[in-house]
Design a protein that fits this description.
Elements: H1 12-18, H2 26-32, H3 42-45, H4 56-61, E1 90-94, E2 97-103, H5 128-140, E3 146-151, H6 159-170, E4 177-182, H7 184-187, H8 194-200, E5 206-211, H9 220-231, E6 236-241, H10 250-262, E7 265-271, H11 286-296, E8 307-311, E9 318-320, E10 326-329, E11 332-336, E12 342-345
Parallel strand pairs: 2-3, 3-4, 4-5, 5-6, 6-7, 7-8
Antiparallel strand pairs: 1-2, 8-9, 10-11, 11-12
Helix pairs in contact: 6-8
Length: 356
């Protein structure tokens, strides 16, 4: 870049100037732009190796011609947000928790995102009236124990506005925990300022869920941002999406999960790829995901093992789909150990020799 400061790449021209695409790719990217937003922050651009056609960072954020292929099973709303949205900004799928979408913009737009058709520059943050209506919805329903701020990325809001939202939620007596989902600490770590950290701290526990998919994302700047959050007493968890060609091997996942734990972040979920339109090139089979989880079991600390989950299409909820270790055989249990052995449970005890 000749010493010039990078800016977020939002167009094919920006990506070409950044050196992460070739001129012949521009036409396909321009066609995709009508449906799916593009943004690649300087922090992520700096990680891309243009000489590597399989670069795991470019694969996550730089549009590709494969996105034009829409599989028959793919959906504009793959996890059923719309059927559980009683008013703008609220998704109420589970009895005790709601999703509050205060903004529709993100620092980067992941090419596999299940909300890729709902986020982007065309969307807007909730107005003051809409936000008040959403808070009232939460206040009026005493079964709601957890509020999850997502969207869009909540840390794209100003610290003043984010702090005001968290303050209002913390003032609702029956809200026991607030969870904030964000890509910012790894994708745009400079946004994690002292003011932003202060905005996240409240009397009600605030958990910060970090979205991170590859160990390369844990840069020194990202680690410093995570330290600022952890040192403020904010519990940190991580969500990862299993992505073909990015992290679908045990070595990469082990390095990622260990790196997160060392950064005070507990791996929480490993998501099976959702059926978002134009994302079939990212999805593994569930069997492949289960094999990866088996390969990690016993290889890495239990602190490093997330739950492998699938969001059932149509809005039917999220369920674990990891491998089974317990099997029933002829009325008895057989248990697989992490190294491929099989064991009866309870163990078979030989009858004492009556002649002794």
């Amino acid at each position: 870049m000749g010493g010039r400061q990078r800016r977020t790449a939002r167009t094919s021209a920006d990506l070409l100037e950044a050196g992460v695409i070739r001129p012949e790719q521009r036409a396909a990217i321009d066609r995709l732009a009508a449906d799916f937003a593009t943004a690649v922050t300087p922090a992520m651009l700096d990680l891309i190796d243009p000489a590597d056609p399989a670069d795991p960072i470019a694969r996550q954020f730089v549009p590709g011609a494969e996105e034009a292929t829409i599989a028959p099973e793919e959906r504009a709303d793959p996890i059923g947000d719309e059927v559980h949205s009683p008013l703008k900004g609220i998704v109420h799928r589970y009895p005790d928790r709601v999703l509050l979408k205060a903004t529709h913009v993100c620092p980067v737009y992941c090419r596999f995102c299940f909300r890729r058709e709902a986020v982007g520059p065309g969307g807007e943050a909730l107005s003051e009236t809409e936000l008040a209506d959403a808070i009232d919805y939460i206040r009026e329903r005493r079964d709601i124990w957890e509020v999850i701020l997502s969207g869009g990325d909540p840390l794209m809001l100003s610290p003043r506005r984010l702090g005001a939202i968290i303050g209002q939620l913390a003032g609702v007596e029956h809200v026991g925990v607030i969870r904030v989902h964000t890509r910012v600490p790894v994708a745009d770590p400079a946004r994690v300022t002292a003011a932003m950290v202060k905005a996240l701290v409240a009397a009600t526990p605030v958990y910060v869920a970090i979205h991170c998919n590859h160990p390369l994302e844990l840069t020194e700047a990202a680690l410093a941002a995570l330290r600022r959050l952890a040192q403020a007493g904010l519990p940190l968890v991580a969500q990862t999406v299993l992505l073909k060609g990015v992290n679908d091997d045990a070595d990469t996942l082990a390095r990622l999960f260990r790196g997160l734990v060392q950064a005070h972040v507990r791996p929480y979920y490993l998501h099976h790829g959702d059926l978002a339109r134009g994302t079939s090139h990212f999805r593994t089979s569930i069997a492949e995901g289960q094999a990866l989880m088996r390969a990690l079991r016993g290889r890495v600390s239990g602190l490093c093992l997330p739950t492998y989950v699938l969001d059932i299409p149509g809005g039917h909820g999220k369920v674990p789909v990891g491998p089974a270790y317990l099997h029933d055989v002829d009325g008895r249990h057989t248990i697989d150990d992490p190294w491929g052995g099989h064991h009866a449970y309870p163990p078979v005890v030989a009858s004492p020799d009556s002649t002794c």
